[in-house]
Amino acid sequence: MSSSASPAGIELVHVGLGPIGLHVMSYLDGRDAFRSVAAVDPALAGQTLERGGLRVVRDVTELGRRGGVAIHCAGSSLAGAEPTLTALLSSGHHVVSTCEELADPWQAQPEVAARLDAVAREHGVVLLGTGVNPGYAMDYLPIVLSASQRSVRAVDVHRVQDAGLRRLPLQRKVGAGLSVEEFGERVRGGTIRHVGLPESARLVNRALGLGCTGFTETIDPIVAEKPVAYGEGLVEAGHVLGVDQLVVASRDGEALIRLHLQMAVGLPDPRDVITLDGEPGLTSVVRGLHGDSATAAVVVNTLGRVGRAAPGLRTVDELPASPQYR
Amino acid sequence: MSSSASPAGIELVHVGLGPIGLHVMSYLDGRDAFRSVAAVDPALAGQTLERGGLRVVRDVTELGRRGGVAIHCAGSSLAGAEPTLTALLSSGHHVVSTCEELADPWQAQPEVAARLDAVAREHGVVLLGTGVNPGYAMDYLPIVLSASQRSVRAVDVHRVQDAGLRRLPLQRKVGAGLSVEEFGERVRGGTIRHVGLPESARLVNRALGLGCTGFTETIDPIVAEKPVAYGEGLVEAGHVLGVDQLVVASRDGEALIRLHLQMAVGLPDPRDVITLDGEPGLTSVVRGLHGDSATAAVVVNTLGRVGRAAPGLRTVDELPASPQYR
User: What phi and psi, each to the nearest 5 degrees, are found at residue A49?
Assistant: First the structure.
């Protein structure tokens, strides 16, 4: 971390001050290992933040500085993020990003991945996509658990999230309150979809050497059987509570990775269930991986270790586990 | 891995061919990334192993070779292992060891730790103590899970193992079949004790920055209420089924880490329960971490990544997660 550590801690640049970016910022309170030194968001340009009295600039080209770690929370599209990421890496920043498509872009977007990897290597810094999903619950944890197994033949992950406990944009994103017809239209239009499941499947596939080549994704509504109250009002019976999304990865027609995500208002018993079919096989049930909170926590707990990986575009399984900066 | 990778795979030296060492060796079947090139065990010296037709030598000084990864499965005592570890490191081997006291020796045995660290750095290799416990179930997993939390105030781990499913030496080690009096004598004599709980507590304490300075360990018998059959015969009612061991780590008199291990014949529902008291807090229940099998698996799944850490004495939280060699 020679490029980013200083007596006052690791210097942080905040890029993107939407709900996730601000959530991450709030989780830095009391962490003396870090010091926020700049912030970027076109929507807030010119304003002054409470944290560190930072004046927000419009664009990363206005930073006029080098080094430290940039926290990039500005959208799910890797193509859309590439110019900003390239600028940050070129000015010598390690980058920890919540861009879902960055979690494992090597197979889905190989040209973009190769370009970003080259820029990061050239400038001796690390680029990493992470968060709770993708980046932790449905990929990193199964990979970590696989280390206890002689062999793993297949992986099944079932994540259940109560969207009623989450931020309002998420409730809209999962389609809460829509009719089944409206939900179907928005799925076809691409506005209802959790981005990141195929990335998680590719990460698991590659880390465990499962050899899957076929990836399918289906998105269905979870429909209310009776009226359900939530943050923005009421979901009537027969209307949509949220999304039921499934990615299956196969080798020679055999489904070896199954990632099943249910995010809807009012879902009981939020949990993450991981089943490894292997020798001897394993089941893990975790309660407490709440989406927004866990994404902010995972990002903050990654800041101190991202610089300990080899320069380049990295995936979460390549970092050391310990969240502490030391 | 430049010092150990070759077209034929990573070269392995097997040091210690007891139950664990042989278990590890059997788990290498079908893993083309590795190639066994030498074996060391005084009890088997001169014999030829089925695996690779290796002729076993008596001592590491007879190896006459350099490089690759040594798998060291030869006892729990770090002081006892130091000469062998030093010889292996000095001859350019990365070392993955199941020596329990090596899992985190920095606080308990700082002089030995410093000496081994210096030798490893001097020769550009990594020394790591691992296994399922210590090394995974009660330390690595809680550390990994902490990354999802804004903050962690306290850690509680409860590991339940049915010793009846395990190798016979373990059943003897936990005192199965003894009277309560014999059990107490052997605890006082130091022959009944699972080695590694304080090491796990120190690993968690350091990785999570909990600041504990006091460590206590208690060992009690689990007593049969009715006769219980097991591998070597029958435990009569009133006699010992196994061990109930507890390590508590405290800061300013407050217990912040509680590691509770129960290993006995006939214990129902073997499982690992991790509870993180924090924001927001988390509970994890894993079924499938069987001691001997998981130790062998963890060791084998570590061989490909030990060389990706910086040279020196390392702890498991400093390695990348992905078990694959690539």
Answer: -85, 150
